[in-house]
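Table S4 entry, SDR family oxidoreductase.
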Amino acid sequence: MSTVQGAGVVVTGAGGGIGAALARRFAAEGARVVVNDLDAGRIEALAGEIGGTVVAGDASEIVDAARDALDGRVDVYCANAGLASGGDAFAEEDVWAAAWDVNVMSHVRAARALLPDWLERGSGRFVSTASAAGLLTMIGAAPYSVTKHGAVAFAEWLSLTYRHRGVKVHAICPQGVRTDMLTAAGSAGELVLAPTAIEPEAVADALFDAMDQDRFMVLPHPEVAGYYRARAKDPDHWIGSMNHLQQKWEESGA
């Protein structure tokens, strides 16, 4: 894509899965890529493979270092780092706090650091890796579902607030993707997500299609659009259907 040729791109949570696939795709399209992970060892091989730069550390705090590594200019920021927090309403406070910090506040902090430059020059692109759980909710994962709703809401707010000033925003909302996060979802993931799981590279393809078409919502599983419409049309029916799924999961011995 000519739109990313030579662009400065940051991908957080690039140690594997969707993040690594995004980094590889941006690099293949001619971008200069900074890869981030808490553990530098997880991204050194990837950086060598794609000719990228390693900036390790907390995704909430790396914008300045990434900007320096890209000669002062970040054009695309992929807020991809995420935390798969299972549990219900009784999950411990620290589980909720960690999910909120990684899945929502890291996006807020990055945007706060990026926006002044983007607004001054009239261009910038923020990519939020959210989840279909942020549109539809996921059984057995209250902290994850709630915070992914927050990630989608923040991405939507960014777009509606700054779109006319040149800031483009994309919210990626896949269902199951064959990554460590799917494995971490346990029996609920096996029941709901595994049957239609896709490879991380398909998520990168979906993002680039959305960028070509200037679409906010990125749905690597196109059927999610129909589910989302059904949920909006008849919320009670939707919740009832999801409750039946919850019961099926419980009966399976989850």
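The mean pLDDT is 92.
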